[in-house]
Specification:
mainly alpha
């Protein structure tokens, strides 16, 4: 499957809203911008999400994809993410340090 537009889907492949935008995007953005909980979630994102990418890049040494094509890159990313999760489970079970 290429990058061409698919009817009923947004650019990321999700289900498009009737007005052509991502479904529920405005409502989610409003909640994240105006509520205290939304503000806390935005502040936490750098810790929760960006740490994973940094860990994969530094500790697993993954800095670029070796395969070509969207389907193959998605598969390669799933393998990297699976390796990251297995490593996390191993470290949690053995009590080893993450940097070791």
């Amino acid at each position: 499957m290429g990058l061409e537009a698919v009817p009923g889907r947004d650019a990321a492949g999700g289900v498009a809203a009737p007005d052509g935008g991502p479904r529920g995007c405005r409502k989610v953005r409003k909640n994240l911008d105006t509520t205290e909980r939304g503000s806390a979630l935005r502040k936490r994102r750098g810790v929760d999400v960006e740490t994973v990418f940094g860990d994969i890049k530094r500790n697993l040494g993954f800095t670029r994809f070796t395969l070509r094509g969207l389907e193959k890159v998605e598969l390669e990313w799933r393998l990297v993410a699976t390796g990251h999760n297995i490593r996390k489970m191993f470290l949690a079970r053995t009590g080893a340090e993450a940097g070791a």
